[in-house]
Design goal:
Blueprint lengths: L10 E5 L28 H14 L3 E5 L9 H9 L6 E6 L4 H11 L3 E5 L5 H8 L4 H13 L3 E6 L9 H6 L1 H4 L3 E5 L15 H12 L3 E2 L9 E4 L7 E4 L12 E4 L4 E3 L7 E3 L1 H5 L4 H14 L19 H4 L2
Parallel strand pairs: 1-2, 1-10, 2-3, 3-4, 4-5, 5-6, 6-9
Antiparallel strand pairs: 7-8, 8-9, 10-11, 11-12
Helix pairs in contact: 1-2, 1-10, 2-3
This protein binds S-adenosylmethionine and iron/sulfur cluster.
Amino acid sequence: MIDGQGRTIDYLRISLTDRCNLRCAYCMPPEGVPCLSHEEILRLEEIGYLTEIMAGMGLKKVRLTGGEPLVRKNVTSLIRQISHIPGIETVAVTTNGILLPKMLSDLKDAGLKAVNISIDTLDEAVFQKITGAILLKEVLEGIDIAYASGLKVKLNCVPVMEFNSEEPVRLAAFAKDRFIDVRFIELMPIGCGRFYTRITSEEILESLEKVYGKATRLPYEGKGPAQYFSFEGFKGRIGFISPISHKFCSECNRLRLTSDGKIKLCLYYKDGVDVRDLIRNGADEGRIREAIEEALRLKPREHYFCEPDKGNTEVKKMSQIGG
Ligand code: SAM
Ligand code: SF4
């Protein structure tokens, strides 16, 4: 799949639900947001069918996200189905980790290859302040179980001035003794993210170097948006995903499928191409392929998070879009 800007697109992030068992303040308001109805949400067989069509067009990697993807009923059977689609090389999940202790072994049996776990703090009080829940222990257990299972594990932290500016140094230590990559993601001004203060990748790197010594920048592997560094004595890498301070739009290789069945082209814009109604109205495979091709054609060149509003910007919360 080649988009209108000449980029190869081989990665789809599928949002399985807009629901979540946490309420991270920069992602979702404490009272939550009105949830999609059962009818509005894409059925698992519809997701499987679309993935199959896209795999036939060049899709190689799928990541399940949300909301919290592991709260979606039958996620395991979806993983089993997708991982058997010819052409799909990796099925991964991005999760807050809470349900991993209960579900990991089934997810792995179903064909899950990698898991990214979001963790913003190691302090129970800070965790509660960010997420509204007392569940840090479960997340830590989820990390342990995922790592022990042999799956590829990455940890993601969003540093936010109001909450966890002291945490990156402690979280980076996960990469010291284990082959786990710890990544810091710059807060984007999407939804509730607009109300908080971003800490830039440079600032985080500086704070890590004060404690762990000079970092070595690793060569870009040509995969994903992270810039990785190694610290002496660390088994895992430290990564920075810097959509704001170092736009990576020219390397973008992804589309998103929202839980209500729109192919979303870029986090910044509200535009998308509806595929749910096409499927439900009986469109044949050729017509659905045309819609996917239209999405590829329309995919914008870049985001404008740091510039005055150009209109057409996304107004939904991250949990509704699929982070
Ligand atoms: N619930 C799952 C989780 O937390 O990993 C998956 C969905 S969540 C929306 C995916 C990722 O988006 C999380 O790592 C979260 O921290 C991140 N995120 C949410 N809002 C964000 C924002 N405004 N800017 C940057 N990252 C954000
Ligand atoms: Fe839920 Fe993930 Fe958003 Fe936190 S970041 S509220 S866990 S969807």
